[in-house]
Amino acid sequence: MFFQNEFIYSINSRKLYFIGNVYAEIELINGDDLCQARRGEIDPDEVRKIRIIALVDMDVANMVINENIQETLQLPVKDHRKVQLKNGNITSCDLIGPLDIRFENRHTICQAYVLPGNSEPILGLIPFGGMDVVIDPAQQKLVVNPKHPDGAIFRTGKLVIVQ
Prior knowledge:
Blueprint: E1 6-9, E2 16-19, E3 22-30, H1 31-38, E4 49-56, E5 63-66, H2 67-73, E6 77-84, E7 90-103, E8 106-115, E9 122-123, H3 125-130, E10 133-136, E11 141-144, E12 153-156, E13 159-162
Parallel strand pairs: 4-9, 5-8
Antiparallel strand pairs: 1-2, 3-4, 3-7, 6-7, 7-8, 10-11, 12-13
């Protein structure tokens, strides 16, 4: 696992890399809309979605979006939770979902926290792992796991699920 602003050794090249902030272009889709479109209740063109640039941050557990993204997606609020921001402040925010997150040939479904205003969106550890993606330290960008280029592999104990 790679963390921002740390020096790491690349296993393949034995080189030392400094990992700064890594951003990825991802697509966020309203999961409820996807289900309705599959059932024929709405036209596929009515599915609410948005392409964004998100910070990839392994110090954050979940997906984090802002109110502007939530306004576009109109995801249902599941709960209201307190979260601690990187600056140490504690704030309350909505927990929304289901959110379908897509990157290249990968996708995962999760919940997301909604921060106020135009806060920076963050792709956290849970969706990162769910898509089986990695950070390429040489290019300092998010890529599909080269060990599993055709699809994500999820590991849960001894059981391996191939998507």
